[in-house]
Amino acid sequence: MSGVTKAVRRTVLSVVRRSPVPTTQLPEAVSILAAMPVAVVVLSEENRFTYANPAAEQFLGLSFPQLAQLSLDDVLPEDSPLFLMVGQLRTGATSIADHDLSFDGPRLSKKGISVQGTTLSEDPGSVLLILQDGNTVRSLDRQIAARNAARSITGMAAILAHEIKNPLSGIRGAAQLLESSVAETDQELTVLIREEADRIRALVDRMEVFGEKPVAMEAVNIHRVLEHVRRVARSGFGDGLRFSESYDPSLPSVWGNRDQLVQVLLNLVKNAADALIAGGALESEITLITRYQHGLRLANPTSDSDNRVELPLLVVVRDNGPGIPEDIRPHLFEPFVSSKPSGQGLGLALVAKIIADHGGLIEVESRPGRTEFRLHLPMLAEEDAQ
Ligand SMILES: Nc1ncnc2c1ncn2[C@@H]1O[C@H](COP(=O)(O)OP(=O)(O)OP(=O)(O)O)[C@@H](O)[C@H]1O
Ligand SMILES: [Mg+2]
Predict the structure, then answer these.
(1) d(CA 81, CA 309)
(2) Which residue intervals define the domain PAS in the entry (predicted)?
(3) 325 CB less than 6 Å from ligand 1?
């Protein structure tokens, strides 16, 4: 749970329970919640509204005195996925985030809603929800726009041509090393050359029907993918940069396409390397992280809205470079957006497309000294394993 959610939870609890809180603290707690630009509501065990901040009143289109007379059933249709989420919170989940929900009730009709829910352990049965509409969750919108842009046929062809370059530079770098290195290392480099050559072949094979042909999904060990990408980077564009890893060794396999995941991570690591080299930071470092993280779910793009996929596998590529230029940010995942003299601006469009095809989600956080691309990916589902 984020620090903000924790702080909100504590404050809400003070407001809802009133009595145990020293009265001197109460106005402060109320005004903090009132000032928050996100909608915060608390539901009782019977799903009645016991608290709503002003942003929530605006979001729901009802004042708190009105809401206090109502329960969630009065606002949303009974098949709303929000009921499922609230139920899961009451039966053990401590925190869940759900994106891209539609609220379609008699009093409320909104699309693209993100909800973060958490239990109030000190107040059993009560559930706290933070609601954000599509405008607030702009990064998600951007992703969807990027998805569409990358799907255009021309964009697709350009992306493919672009993608042939990365493995080729890996091959060239490795071959160069081979020439000047001693015999012992030859074998590892030969393996690298073979793997990269295979990848180009697989890409070119797909060229005719790129975008049409469904890619083969399998259980992929993401740590092997990361190590492969690191080796390619080391022997090419990332030569001389420091890499560090923080892996969760018990992480289950990703349900995905190995070659495509290599492409995604190669692009993210290449961007990090570019930023570090251009930024000239003294202690340049690329950090690769994997984690298991409960709670983030997304509507399955290939099925109806009630079928939601959990994305518990987190893969992070972090660098300590200068950060993403301000003017690039609103269009980050669109094709042909680049701040580099020789950049094509296709890397992140490709990343967005592949992650979308995997049913995953990307988050970006960037400030000078720390840029982080976080991939949330699905794991092997039981029905896929059979
Ligand atoms: N880790 C990062 N740090 C700072 N800026 C970044 C980072 N990753 C991406 N960017 C910014 O986003 C832009 C778009 O990245 P993208 O990978 O799509 O294209 P590119 O790297 O410029 O070109 P290409 O990948 O086609 O060679 C980059 O030009 C850069 O300005
Ligand atoms: Mg790039």
Answers:
(1) 13
(2) 25-79
(3) yes
Structural contact between residues 274 and 348, judged by C-beta atoms closer than 8 angstroms = no
Decide whether any atom of ligand 1 lies within 6 Å of the 150 Cβ.
no
- In sequence order, what are the residues at sequence separation of 6 or more whose Cβ sits closer than 8 angstroms to the Cβ of residue 176? none
Short-list 315, 353, 356, CA closest to 100: 356
Structure-token pair, residue 130: 């933070």
Judged by DSSP in three states, 192 sits in helix
pTM for this one? 0.58
Reported as a single tens digit per residue, the pLDDT across 225-270 is 999 999 999 998 888 899 999 999 999 999 999 998 999 999 999 9
Q: Is the C-beta atom of 275 inside 6 A of ligand 1?
A: yes
The Cα–Cα gap between 212 and 168 comes to 25
Q: Where are the alpha helices (DSSP H) in the chain?
A: 3-17, 26-35, 54-60, 64-67, 72-75, 81-90, 138-151, 153-180, 183-206, 222-234, 258-279, 347-357, 382-385
Domains of the chain: residue spans and CATH: 3-136 (3.30.450.20), 141-385 (3.30.565.10)
Instruction: Give the Å distance between the CA of 82 and the centre of ligand 2.
Output: 38
Tokens 């988050």: give the residue. 363
CA torsion sign, 289 to 293 to 298 to 303? positive
User: To which H or E segment does residue 312 belong?
Assistant: none
